[in-house]
């Protein structure tokens, strides 16, 4: 499913369109479940989290701003943030049972990047963007779709009208070129 299709579905979901919501769930639930499972490392928790995530998406689809962010990126962010919140709650519950200064320090710990990290991330993004610009347009787009938006090899092969193995080769060689560029 293309970004435009997901965008249209999210717009319809924001208007309480149940069929669009079902289509959105079918198109994205496997990816979002994988993200939850990777973060939570517990299948039952990931399944529960996925259900909560889609309730959030249903209620907050109007918060999605078309054109500002890719639809899959927005969906992944909702899923990731929810899973991390659950992980933090689980960790906080475990530390509430413990006593001592260490638990107070854990509660004060933040996972937000500081100013130095933010600056480094900005520089890294600029360097990656410059390296992507060195690739052929279609190969750079394939890399973006695969690694930023979660497109599969098959989806990319269909989109660019190339054989599946050709797409795998494009991505492998493009990543090698990016690695070389980033090491300069």
Automatic annotation (TrEMBL):
<dbReference type="Pfam" id="PF08281">
    <property type="entry name" value="Sigma70_r4_2"/>
</dbReference>
<dbReference type="Pfam" id="PF04542">
    <property type="entry name" value="Sigma70_r2"/>
</dbReference>
<dbReference type="InterPro" id="IPR013325">
    <property type="entry name" value="RNA_pol_sigma_r2"/>
</dbReference>
<dbReference type="InterPro" id="IPR039425">
    <property type="entry name" value="RNA_pol_sigma-70-like"/>
</dbReference>
<feature type="domain" description="RNA polymerase sigma factor 70 region 4 type 2">
    <location>
        <begin position="126"/>
        <end position="178"/>
    </location>
</feature>
<dbReference type="InterPro" id="IPR014284">
    <property type="entry name" value="RNA_pol_sigma-70_dom"/>
</dbReference>
<dbReference type="GO" id="GO:0003677">
    <property type="term" value="F:DNA binding"/>
</dbReference>
<dbReference type="InterPro" id="IPR007627">
    <property type="entry name" value="RNA_pol_sigma70_r2"/>
</dbReference>
<dbReference type="InterPro" id="IPR036388">
    <property type="entry name" value="WH-like_DNA-bd_sf"/>
</dbReference>
<dbReference type="InterPro" id="IPR013324">
    <property type="entry name" value="RNA_pol_sigma_r3/r4-like"/>
</dbReference>
<keyword id="KW-0731">Sigma factor</keyword>
<protein>
    <submittedName>
        <fullName>RNA polymerase sigma-70 factor, ECF subfamily</fullName>
    </submittedName>
</protein>
<feature type="domain" description="RNA polymerase sigma-70 region 2">
    <location>
        <begin position="24"/>
        <end position="91"/>
    </location>
</feature>
<comment type="similarity">
    <text>Belongs to the sigma-70 factor family. ECF subfamily.</text>
</comment>
<dbReference type="GO" id="GO:0016987">
    <property type="term" value="F:sigma factor activity"/>
</dbReference>
<dbReference type="InterPro" id="IPR013249">
    <property type="entry name" value="RNA_pol_sigma70_r4_t2"/>
</dbReference>
<keyword id="KW-0805">Transcription regulation</keyword>
<keyword id="KW-0804">Transcription</keyword>
<dbReference type="GO" id="GO:0006352">
    <property type="term" value="P:DNA-templated transcription initiation"/>
</dbReference>
């Amino acid at each position: 499913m293309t970004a435009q299709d997901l965008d249209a579905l999210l717009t319809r979901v924001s208007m309480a369109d149940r069929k669009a919501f079902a289509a959105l769930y079918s198109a994205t639930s496997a990816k979002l479940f994988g993200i939850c499972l990777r973060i939570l490392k517990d299948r039952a928790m990931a399944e529960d989290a996925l259900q909560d995530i889609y309730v959030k998406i249903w209620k907050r689809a109007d918060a999605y701003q078309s054109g500002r962010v890719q639809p899959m990126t927005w969906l992944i962010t909702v899923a990731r943030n929810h899973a991390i919140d659950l992980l933090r709650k689980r960790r906080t519950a475990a530390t509430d049972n413990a006593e001592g200064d260490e638990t107070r320090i854990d509660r004060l710990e933040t996972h937000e990047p500081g100013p130095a990290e933010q600056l480094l991330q900005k520089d890294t993004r600029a360097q990656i963007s410059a390296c992507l610009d060195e690739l052929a347009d279609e190969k750079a787009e394939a890399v973006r779709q695969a690694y930023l938006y979660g497109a599969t090899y098959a989806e990319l092969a269909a989109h660019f009208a190339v054989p599946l193995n050709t797409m795998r080769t494009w991505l492998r060689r493009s990543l090698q070129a990016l690695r070389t560029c980033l090491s300069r």
